[in-house]
Design brief:
The chain is of the alpha/beta class. The chain has 15 helices and twelve strands. The strands form two sheets. A six-stranded parallel sheet has the order 2-1-3-4-5-11, with helices on both faces. Strands 7-6-8-9-10-12 form a six-stranded mixed sheet, with helices on both faces. Helix 1 packs across helix 2 and helix 12 crosses helix 13.
């Protein structure tokens, strides 16, 4: 039997009920329907209950997103990511960073939207993210994505970029952290050193190292120079920041040009390096010392426990989110926050083998 009753929930093939349908069925204005869901104190209890009952019978739910967009707010922050989600989730660094961002979002009653590149383009992803502002990870202020955010007047904060007038940003002392790591292995007596660095991508050919990598390379160079060496005296291997890439790269360079110390520019690369060394029958640190960068939770749980540079990853996320909320509220004075680093010496480094 075909359904003919008016005012019931939408059946298959019917359009979604609207606020106008509810208003007509309840005998009230569309404004009253809006009040029932958003400002019920403006209606009598009887009117509010009648509207809500009719809305339930019709299967009507308010379009919250459309309402927020009309008001110019979405109650959501976006994190603009430099890599696709699969690659990002391989690196525990991001889970720590997003924990910090999420803590502030919870406090403010906001949701969090992760925005990876769309068809390999971060620029294309921006228009599809309905957010009140962006935390932009790993991009410099002169990139097209940043220009696009400025053009549309979207609040944003840069993370792991560089300070720039008129833009809020959060960085860590990458130069100091890398200096400490390299200085540590040099002080132990190592000279056959391989730097396992993060691949800067194709832009390096045009612009050289930028952002955190530029600062870390400056720290590496300064530590070497303090010991009468130069960057040309060590091997530099650049790979994507995944454990498997660290593993494969270590297998290659140890077979071609063995090192007594591997200085990795991320913990995830250091873990891959240790996997490879152990797979080759080498003992860490008796045969090869390894340092990391980040101090992820695994660094203190693995065996041997990893010597690494600690950066406050979750605090970086919290600081970025706090700055973004200040920008959204119009309170921001475009500050640059620089967070410290600290070398944590554990069990994965020692003097080089006596036969060296």
């Amino acid at each position: 039997m075909p359904a003919t009753t008016s005012g019931t929930a939408s059946s298959e093939g019917k359009s979604r009920p609207t606020a106008k349908n509810v208003a007509e069925a309840a005998g009230v204005s569309r404004s009253a329907v809006s009040f029932a869901f958003n400002s019920p104190e403006k209606l009598s209890v009887a009117t509010r209950d009648r509207i809500l009952r009719v809305a339930q019978e019709l299967g009507y739910t308010p379009n919250t997103l459309a309402r927020m967009l009309k008001a110019g707010q979405t109650q959501s922050l976006g994190v603009l990511l430099p890599q696709n989600l699969a690659r990002v989730m391989e690196n525990p660094y991001y889970s720590r960073f997003l924990t910090g961002v999420g803590q502030v979002c919870d406090e403010q009653g906001y949701t969090l939207l992760l925005t990876p590149p769309l068809r390999d383009s971060m620029l294309k992803a921006i228009p599809y993210a309905a957010v009140d502002g962006f935390i932009v990870c790993g991009l410099e202020h002169d990139r097209g994505e940043v220009a696009e955010l400025r053009r549309h007047g979207i609040p944003f904060v840069l993370v792991d970029s560089s300070s720039h007038e008129g833009v809020s940003s959060v960085d860590v002392d990458d130069e100091g952290g890398a200096y400490e790591a390299v200085r540590h292995v040099l002080d132990l007596g190592h000279r056959r050193i391989t730097l396992l660095s993060i691949d800067p991508g194709p832009e390096r050919a045009e612009r050289g190292y930028r952002g955190p990598l530029a600062r870390r390379m400056a720290g590496v160079t300064r530590a070497l120079e303090d010991s009468g060496m130069g960057l040309e005296d060590i091997e530099v291997v650049e790979v994507p920041a995944t454990r498997m890439d660290g593993f494969k790269a270590t297998k290659r360079f140890m077979a071609a040009q063995p090192a007594t110390a591997v200085v990795a520019m991320s913990d995830i690369l250091a873990l891959g390096a240790i996997d490879a060394l152990q797979d080759m029958g080498l003992e860490v640190p008796r045969d090869v010392s390894v340092t990391g960068y980040d101090d992820l939770p695994d660094a203190s749980w693995m065996r041997p426990r990893l010597t690494t540079v600690r950066q406050a990853i979750a605090a970086k996320g919290r600081t970025a989110a706090d700055l973004l909320f200040s920008t959204i509220r119009g309170e921001d004075q475009h500050p640059h926050q620089l967070l410290g680093t600290h070398l944590i010496v554990r069990d994965s480094t020692a003097h080089p083998p006596t036969t060296d």
